[in-house]
Amino acid sequence: MTDFASLLQPDRQQEARTVHVVDAKGFDAWLGAQSARARGAAEAARFKGKAGEFALLPGDGANDWAVAVGVKDAAKLAPWDLAGAVARLPACSYRLADGRPGAAALGWLLAHYKFDRYLSDKKPVDSRVLLTSDPATAEDVVRLAQATALVRDLVNTPAEDLGPSELAAAAEAQAAEFGARIKVVQGEALKDGFPAVHAVGRAADKAPRLIDLSWGDASHPKLTLVGKGVCFDSGGLDIKPASGMATMKKDMGGAAHALAMARLIMQAKLPVRLRLIIPAVENAISGNAFRPGDILATRKGVSVEIGNTDAEGRLILCDALALAQEDKPDLILDFATLTGAARVALGPELPALFANDDGIADAILTAGREVSDPLWRLPLWEPYRDMLKSEVADINNAGEGGFAGAITAALFLAKFVEAKTQWAHVDLFAWQPASKPGRPKGGEAMTLRAFFRFLEGRYRRPA
């Protein structure tokens, strides 16, 4: 993993190039304050302070130069405002003219991220060190960059090298680092306590797992994170077309997010009794694969008719949520790459939020706006529960008619959470379909910053 800590350093007035952050409304005043040489360079580069613009500004000496970067609002930097400029800069140290990069420091760091595990020619990424006069927040920014990189690395790793056992190993590594306890139930042992997880994962050569990590003081409020860990999704017997299967290594993106969130919580020592539950499977095809029309048992005792084997994520999550509920937690958060319907409704960059409590939903949405990590709330519309009716079981895993797919999936999960338990569910993409500054094409962390800001507000750090 990139050494992000080395890229964000306290400003002790060491030698560094100046980065001028300029927006269109303040451009004229900024330009008027520059030297004649700098004004000429800005004019030659057609720099007007618009977002994404860039210019090199010569100084008085032969090796004296600075940089101007255009942003939307220079008074309130967003995470990705400086990320595009990083790729144009040579390796050396930089400081913003006012010394405080704020939220843009995260994008600066993540512009150095590269997934090169499988490249034979691993070209090193030039290190551009950013100096900050606000070192108190630097550690938090580095931790967010590390958590984001963890999600990206896990999602980008193909299923051949990241199956249920490797996902369990990733959780075990976090447990070892932070002194957490972890239990892993696998294979045939899942039949008794986690029959739905077993049924979905039994057709794969790599045995399914139920990963259960716990950390923190037992006297603190209980916070449980649940993540969908489908390490590859063929669709099962309701097989996906090749185009739909191409990126299905990312179907464990929910588990990656839950694991990264757990890491952030443990690093920050939030005063919670943390539990992390990840059902990890591969939805494969073989002679013993579960079938359309099968009726599966679940941990909660709810019988499920299989309307579609490609609606497998909710099946493994229902066992995990039932386990989470037994501990009577203060709050349950689940993360899942659950439905294509959410992407049709909101696109790849805007995760869908569902919650059974308006106060929780509002707090999460507010936190997302504060840290430029947005979500959009969709309703748990009770009348649509009829779409999940079954004549031969308690519920069907696939809604009839093809409508409201994200909502019916969330309603399915809600059946396994008691109404009195505060719960939020996120249906996210975990994938960047096209490269943008600081966000290369591939696995991507979404909602990490929003949920961590929300959790910091709910569970204050100890003094």
From TrEMBL:
Record-linked InterPro entries: Leucine_aapep/pepB (IPR011356), Macro_dom-like (IPR043472), Peptidase_M17_C (IPR000819), Peptidase_M17_N_1 (IPR048816)
Record-annotated Cytosol aminopeptidase domain positions: 308-315
Top-level taxonomic group: Bacteria
Signal peptide: none
Name listed for the protein in its UniProt record: Leucyl aminopeptidase family protein
PROSITE patterns: CYTOSOL_AP (PS00631)
UniProtKB keywords: Aminopeptidase, Hydrolase, Manganese, Protease
Keyword NADP: no
GO MF entries: aminopeptidase activity
Pfam annotation, one family: Peptidase_M17
Family, similarity comment: Belongs to the peptidase M17 family.
Membrane-spanning intervals of the chain: none
Record organism: Sphingoaurantiacus capsulatus
CDD domains (alphabetical): Peptidase_M17
